[in-house]
Design goal:
This protein is an alpha+beta fold. It has helices spanning 4-18, 41-45, 141-148, 155-159, 170-180, 193-213, and strands at 23-28, 52-56, 59-64, 67-72, 78-83, 92-98, 102-107, 114-118, 253-257, 260-264. It is built from 6 helices and 10 strands. The radius of gyration is 20 Å and the shape is elongated.
Amino acid sequence: MPELPEVETTRRGITPHLIGERIQTVKVFDHRLRWPVPPDLADNLEGRTLNSIRRRAKYLLLDVQGGSVIIHLGMSGRLQVVKSDHPRKKHDHVDLIFAHKHALRLHDPRRFGFLLWSEAPEQHPLLVQLGPEPLLDDFSGDTLYAASRGRRVAVKNFIMNAHVVVGVGNIYASEALFRARIHPLKPAHKLSRPACARLADEIKVVLAAAIEAGGTTLRDFYGGDGSPGYFTQSLNVYGRTGEPCFVCGKPVTQRVIGQRSSFYCTRCQK
């Protein structure tokens, strides 16, 4: 599933081509996404200028006068800017065609993504209860420490909770915990204030590095320019079961935590 760095990479890839351009035509080739594409989408978009493209957690918000399109890429979705007459592929579901004859095309083979319209996106049920953005100043060791008090859940599950902080997916949680030297099964309420400060800092470092590298190369992910990400070259523990830890040499351990595969070093992470 595209995570925060992949979604941010997509946002950065499509933004220069579309901001300030007028949406001329909306073509929906298949309404059957995770939730049906709104039947009035064209009425809300055609003739309006795309003012900005924002990211909130793993959602993209395309802002026009009067509201926003909320897009989630699901398990296998991607957005690309193509010529409006570029031949469609089997799983191309929606085109937003701009006056300069380019189209923003949503491709989603598994159809777990969605595209919705909202006049007040910040108040939409999908967004209103989300936690802080990890790369902004309102997320810190202090906020993480305060949120962890009384929470007995494993710290890996805790930081993957979007009510605590958004966008820390499975890969990035494993990597941040390794860098912070924290065992993924440690109960959140046992984290000290210094440990929370380290963990918050490492979450920021890991996510920022992944964004700069273009996201993490997953089987179905491509950026806004069609290129895969390259952050997998820098992974310390994720997917390295049995391989030596880069710090101490002990084999990396894999274990299922919260129904997700987790990777860590039993010597370095306490």
